[in-house]
Protein: phosphoenolpyruvate--protein phosphotransferase
Organism: Paraburkholderia rhynchosiae
Amino acid sequence: MPSLLTAELVRLNARATSKHDAIVQAGELLAAAGYIEPAYVDSLHGREKVSNTYLGNGVAIPHGMQEDRHLIRRTGVAVLQLPEGVEWHDGERANLVVAIAAQSDEHIALLQRLTRLIGDSEKLRALVDARDPNALVAALNGAGADAATSVIESTPADFEQRVELVLDYPHGLHARPASTWVATAKRYQAALRVRNGKLAADPKNLVSLLQLGATANAHLVLSAQGVDAADALTALKRTIQALSAEEHERAAAARARRQKAQPVSWTPVDPATMFEGVSAGPGFSIGQARVMRTAQLDVQDRPGETVEATHRLEEALRKTADELDTLARDTTARLGAEEGAIFGAHRELLNDTELLAEAARLLLDGHGVAWSWHQAAERQAERLAALPDPLLASRATDLRDVARRVLKHLGENLAADTRLNTPAILIAEDLTPSDTAMLDPAVTLGFCTVSGGPTSHTAILARTLGVPAAVACGAALLDVADGSAAVLDGTSGRLYVGVSAQDLERARRTQLQLAEEAQRAAANRALPAATLDGHVLEIGANITRPDQVRDAIANGADGVGLMRTEFLFLERHDAPSEDEQYDCYRRMVEASGGRHLIIRTLDIGGDKQVPYLNLPHESNPFLGVRGLRLCLRRPDLFVPQLRALYRAAKDGPLWIMFPMVSTLDEARQALALAETVRAELDAPKVPLGIMVETPSAAAFADHFAALVDFFSIGTNDLTQYVLAVDREHPELARMAESLHPAVLRMIKQTVDGARRHRKWVGVCGGLAGDPLGASILAGLGVDELSMSSRDIPAVKSRLRASRLDALQALARRALDCEDVDAVRALETTEIKAAA
């Protein structure tokens, strides 16, 4: 591999007036040498708003945003040597600024060398004082003796038994799934290894896994040796793959939240100070700012008797583990299983062998127990913070959160409590997940932090709590005067401070209006979705299990517009039997109580994989064997499911729907097989329909309508196929907008084709749960909208406040728009007219 750093990219004895100036100088070195487009310098600044790039001990590593990688011509590094230093973050001064432009992972070895240098003050000082650029080039490229310890040369070989797989997680490997990998690996005696390119990790060690930097679609090699190596390897692979669907579901839900959240139409008229960060929790709040300044940890080195110190550390770790178990249970009960799992992953960090070994080594060297633990945890956290992926880098906050809990049990006096006694908007350097989980929504009107990111566990908890939040607002945020009048628009990530009395009054009116709208929507959720002129739309819920039906109906659902059955097949070792499926479908029929119930047959493939089916790897699974294509090829899966569905149909009404249909022949085969199964069981006839998710199904809707009883349009997949955009692609996903006029035209073509044969049309994709999208869909003539239960009240409220003719006019205008932005602009100009 060629060297990433050359002497021409080192500027010795430089001076910088600010962090901004330092980044500009380093970026100009890269641009002048042809490594980056000049616009990438803005991306370097953008990263600083999202995360702190100070690595430690005078070293900073500015690097750009992942979505701007197209501005990198080739991977390279530039170094700014600043003997006098420049303030980087909260009093920390940088003497070496290492600017990184990385197209992939070629720079990982360099980051590893930097991390080692940070622990060697003498070598680092020599680099700051060096007068020959080649001294820095040799140190960072790994020349000479250092090369022997580089990641590439030191990567251990795979064990004899090995398998390969592609990591099908949209956000790569992060703490939640990694903790499940660890739990699986620890069940076996065999030694296990996970390799990502030149980096290898022990899957029994959570931090080691996170340091792999395994991003979406990473090619991993799993290997094992020992008495139960084959079983261990099979189990680990199964665990990794079984989590894929869950990770995609979470990513889809997060995308839907981002697309639906619209900034509040309020901005101050009079002068006010605005802090612009990144939205971490939608909402609008008004109140006094309460600034919490976190004291820097100053853990003194107080050596003691080693055996006693070891016992103290073991006891502190045990107490912390018990504390995290309790917190995980309490958080699960209050907020949900996903949020509780955050602290389950925290607990696993206590078992990190490298962390414990480093703390033990420092203890044996004669250092105090608290100091040794703090140093070991900080070194691990710095390595995590240095990872280029912001999601993985944010796990450094999790590790520091856990480490502070241990220090508390070792008798250290930690930072002040962040809890509020009176209602206020909390301002802080950062909030740990523990801090956030303990916030009281009754007095926490919202919070803003200097650092952090939208994918952090802190942001996840904020959204669940319903607390407006903005992160990455910049260091100047801490200059806000305590008690200042403030307005927080969490949806746009903006905080306004020093707001005038007149603007505060305007903000209160806006807040009251928003609250009244939400209350009306909640109070009227049981009313039908009838427009002002009497047109009624059915409202369904998208669910996966019978126990979700009650909540859906309580939120105003008229029935179930989509039951996803693939979750019966996931996270298990073999396919569910016919009897197992029948029991589930029967309970679904009972829970629905005669209401509309549409059950979709198995939709596996694409973004959902099932390990035990042993499906061949496909280079583009979204265009491969998935949905109905798979079922027709696997009657061993399809026939038992159809039998279970028809048996359940004897207990009550249900409709059967086939996913991912692209040709008339596929539909004919499915219909014929379903009729054969029905006749064998002497079951009642039920409506049989198809999902419209492909352009071919939409274009041939009139032909399909002559065959099937109904359509349900899946706007998520239809969007990615119409726009040729992978909705999981890290750079292109933002383009996968279902409000695009091209997608809307396909939906209109589907409705027109169905009407020629008087067939029913529903929509069960994410667009149905967006109030603007629902309004346009109603105007296009669909019969039903099915969505997440929590979206039902707002959608019903929007439709009940509209006239059908106005919605039809809105739909016509949307079809004539040129892009998504133009469609969204109709939100203000058309919906008011529809009321």
